Amino acid sequence: MLLLTAKGLRSLAGGLQAWENPEYLFRWRGFLYLLGIPPGAASVREFSRLIALRGMDRALRELRGHFFMVVKEKQTHKYTCFTDNNGGFTAFQSKTAAATSFLEMVSYHGLTSSSLDRDSVLEFVNFGNVFANKTLVEGISRIDRNQIIRFGPNGKSVHSKNLAPIDAGNGEFHYLPFFEKMAASIKDYRLSVDLTGGVDSRLIAVLLDYFGVPFETTVSGMDGMEDVEIAKEVAAAMGTTLHVTRPAIDNLEDSIPEVFRVSDGLNDVFKHYRSYQHNQNRVKRGIELALSGIGGEFLKDELWLQDFPFYTSKTARLDRMFHMFMLPIPCKNDYFTAEYVSANQKLQNGTLHALTRFALDTNTKTYDNIYYHYEFPVIGGGFITAANRVLPSYAPMVEPDFVQFGFHLKRRERFFNTFHRKTISKVNPRIAKIRTSEGGISVSSDKWEVGKDIQKYVWDKGTRLMKVIERRLFHGSYTRQPADHPEFSTRIRESRLAREAVELLKEEKILHAKVQLQDIHDAHLSHFLSLSLFMEFLHSTKEQRHGT
């Protein structure tokens, strides 16, 4: 990993890329490119030319991908660092340092359990994430996509990139030329495209195919699962190779320490377990870049489901969105010691209050704004960053201009997957007619197909809403169709890790002494296990410092 202070780079490891000219030394981690130019050094060379023409702060807005970059000014020995402009790559800062790894930053500062942020711990065990650029400890935060950090003789300073907000402009963006230039940049890479039964991954695949870029397709899940079977059908129709990663749990407990490292201690380790296997298989096949459809949610009505079909209301129903999708099953107060109970009681109202600052003039704009600024950098960024620790990975539809384009689409363009229908039907009408995992509808603009799909679409939305409501009322589990191994949850609950986690969190005075493993709901168990792994990490770094 990479760690930077005013004295320079303090920690280097494999995977760090570099390029230099007489004025600057550039180092970066992750996947980086400029549209139309090959990724990596070629794009950084052009970036250095843009710096000379426009200055650093304006030039960096042209960079694409998911990355963290450090730029050293050779003459002054000053350092500038920043993440990508879309929030896909997660990096961290303290008062004196910046790093690509939360765990490395914790170790560097020698933090112990006394540094835990109680409110963040409660966020983590409820949601499986910590939002608003916070982390599990005080004094370390995520670097925001809109921040530039500089180190010089006077220490560290933080500046703004002045990126345009999501509602800026009118959404004018020519997405086909964007994909054409992107395709030109990556055409010589060995590419692997996520392909499920959904519409977002299909959109990526057909556009790359349209611009003549060769690639394999891949899906993770069990045979017979809808996403897998539809992916097989689409791949066969496109004439591409489909690789299926069937989740394995044989070495679950032995694999968890490595998955914990890759997910960097700030995510639900067990949510990353399947994707880690998936990306490892890509590496074994010699894949050089993985592409996903993350971000496609800004082109359809997925983020608005709680208000279906009333998408032009002036009132955002934040409480409905929160209780249906963000936290349908909150942690019971009975889980916790007295110190944590009071904060847990305040968590829901506190989070809802925090979300009000993202309110815009309509309900759907507000939901988009919340997802983009509050949820995506943590959830989407967590998965993208973890993937980039295994192999270069990219989700092109989360680039700011693409998101702004989706944000400004007319509501009817996002209803009924209309944007996907128009685009996929235009570039590959045959693939558009293949059913999707969204109620079996197609994404075809053919009048006959549209007529058949309308009823299926409404039924699918209604069914999903009912299942979400049932989960909220009866505290059951809900996924559209589980992609994990069917015994995954049972194996977690029966593991030695689970038993030891409960005891450790009791010792740390987080869980109440009377709580038993069977008392913890499935929705929360993996969160508590992930937290216990972080506590073990804190203990191990303390022992290393004391030589024990």
Automatic annotation (TrEMBL):
Residues 187-296 form the Asparagine synthetase domain. It holds the Pfam family Asn_synthase. One of its GO terms (molecular function) is asparagine synthase (glutamine-hydrolyzing) activity. It comes from the Bacteria. GO terms for biological process: asparagine biosynthetic process. InterPro entries: Asn_synthase, Rossmann-like_a/b/a_fold. This is Asparagine synthetase domain-containing protein. It comes from Brevibacillus nitrificans.
